[in-house]
């Protein structure tokens, strides 16, 4: 949770600095959010694809004594 609060605080700080300097955000907000969503989806797709390619692990049951 602390990481999320720090991330939000950093974003707010940069937003305030941009506003004080009269600089507009480098990307329109909707474009930036769509790009961020793509990054997050890409991070999730790779582990999922690896699991699908590897297939389920076949294990032999342990013999009972």
Automatic annotation (TrEMBL):
Parts of the chain that traverse the membrane: 29-49
Superkingdom in the source lineage: Bacteria
InterPro entries the record matches: DUF1427, XapX_domain
Name of the protein this chain belongs to: XapX domain protein
Keywords from the UniProt entry: Membrane, Transmembrane, Transmembrane helix
Record organism: Sphingomonas jeddahensis
Pfam families, sorted: DUF1427
């Amino acid at each position: 949770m602390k990481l999320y609060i720090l991330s939000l605080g950093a974003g707010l700080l940069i937003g305030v600095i941009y506003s004080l300097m009269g600089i507009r955000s480098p990307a329109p907000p909707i474009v930036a959010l769509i790009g961020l969503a793509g990054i997050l989806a890409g991070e999730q797709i790779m582990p999922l694809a690896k699991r699908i390619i590897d297939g389920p692990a076949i294990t032999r049951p342990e013999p009972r004594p």
